[in-house]
Write the structure tokens for this entry.
Amino acid sequence: MAERTPTIDAIDHVPADALGPRLAGELATGARFVMLVGLDERSVGGDGLAVEAVAARPDGSLARLRAAVPLDAASYPSVTPLVPAAHWDEREARDLLGIVPVGHPDPRRLVLHERWPRGYHPLRKDVPAGVRPPEGERRFVPFEVHGEGVYQLPVGPIHAGVIEPGHFRFSAMGERVLHLDARLFFVHRGLEKLAEGRALGAAAPLVERACGVCGVTHGLAYAQAVEMLTGTGVPPRARWARVLLAELERLYNHVGDLGNICAGIGFTSGVSRLGWLKERLLRANDALTGHRYLAGIVVPGGLAFELDPAGLAALPSTLEAVGPELAAAVRAVVRSEGVMSRLHGTGVVPAETAAALGALGVSARATGLRVDLRHDAPYAAYDELEVGVVTAAAGDVAARFHVRAQEAQASLRLLAEVLGRMPAGPVTVPLATVPEPGASALGAAEGPRGASWLWLRAGDGGTIDRLRLRSASFANWPVVAAAVPGNLVPDFPLINKSFELCYACTDR
Amino acid sequence: MTAPGPIHPDELGAGRRLRRAIDRTLGRSLHVRHLDAGSCNGCDWEIAALLNPYHDLQRLGIDVVASPRHADLLLVTGTMTRNLEDAARRTYEAMPEPRLVVAVGACAIAGGVFAGSYAGRDGIGEVLPVDVLVPGCPPRPEALIHGLLVAVGRMAPWRGSEGGRAGHPGRPGEAGRPGEAPPAEDASGPGDGVPGR
Ligand code: SF4
């Protein structure tokens, strides 16, 4: 249980036209795309803009390739033609920082819709925070497939259920979808700009609210980035408690998501049984932390407070009861031929597509890709635990159902082990140092929907200069769009629920 | 640990009071429409939890409906982002009168952790006329039921010609006047979870 001293990976400064080839080279030798982040260097002594592409190498180190982008031209050769996974990252940097990826296959706006004025790039350092720009008037140009017998079906942004807003435009022939254009960022709340200027360790309430149900994951990614920047080692009890919290988050999400797949085909007994189990888990969270969704406890330096002793004492018996009930509920689904016939062969994603688009989490593992940060680059106390990575081969809704069901049981086993092995001691330490302005680091955690990555740079006097959160949902949305063509329009809700991505995580 | 029973809201008495209020004003039915106006999804999951077998909102005569045209009450979450403002206004305008708006959570009330952002408003009150505020981040399901109770208790009985809600005591403003913020006493109510009562 020795504390590891994390090292920050060096930044490789490359010419802008070498960014794509260098990044593609890293991926060709086994690295995985992490993110591309747009930067304004003027607050840390530079005179222009920059983009940094990050990839995770198999040995656990990061390739960080940074290219300077002059302020007046504000463009660079797009990396998306070589690395499709960077598709949305580049569009986002163009909207928020005005850095144009020349040669990008989809030059439409992504984050700032038609009510935003031209030339407004909120993450530029000369744009003041908290000032709402004037209204813009632009037109939304959907991507549609046209031809004889092809019709367009627009859905959303406001949907019929209690779900988040997004606009989906199906180009369909009869009942079959030819193309799906997913338009998101309706719940873009400007989280990253709000973080700028805060004390380095004080953004947890904001970052965990990127998403109401992935808060522990994002909070961990953030806390670990801060701890790396400040050289802070977290006490053993906090590292184990972080695993406990992360697995509780995975568990209630997976249980709820299994229920949502049932809802996607109207299998109401499954919805009720799994909804009931999820509620029990939320109540256990509440007893443990005072918050049903575990917000407010993970902070840089450890935990904000000790776990509630009564909640902790009651947890083992709750989890022991949930295990068999979950297994029985899943069995009832799997044994229903009518249900499984809807899940098999629906929303298929081939492994090559998932890999090219940079799929993460369940979406990737259900195609056979073995990616799980808990195993690949262990953090908290995962290096002392055996995380069996669950995969399936078919890449369809059924595969995503099975992976979730098995991972939920694996979480229950991990939780039992953590409860038995959690050391005593303090749960927090002060941040060790104040980093130099301009120092930057990344943090990551494997959440219910996959890996969440947070890029963080220090500003003057221990403040946040720039923070970017790339959630697994952000990575996986293009995979959903790729899973839908060839399926029936009425199967879209089922396919969508089998990914169960958060819009809030994506849009921030 | 014994599992909490499925009749939880009734134990608080809130469920039964809500049911009586609905009986009185709407002849047993209250149709609720959810609107995410830029939330983190936390408030929305708690609204969804109202439909699970623990809270089973439908057994109280309340249904969450698919279209605003069928709704008496709009449960709004989120800060009111710029990207959603048009859709939010149109959702409200599609509702028949009388209609109620409940602001759910810190974001909908005053922007929550996102207050002061370039990306939207500091609460839905800048765009929609708000009747009831339900604080929390997110509010617990029990608080949401309590908020619905307050909303229904303040809705004048539907009696033909008398109709509407004009002149009903304690109303922050006339129905259908978008852009009106809730009055100060609503925003600084006592600590009982639902101000303005
Ligand atoms: S009030 Fe809290 S839980 Fe609700 S949407 Fe806002 S941040 Fe999320």
Remarks:
- Residues A 209, 212; B 39-40, 42-43, 77-78, 105-107, 112-113, 137-138 surround iron/sulfur cluster (CB under 6 Å).
- The first helix of chain B runs from residue 8 to 12.
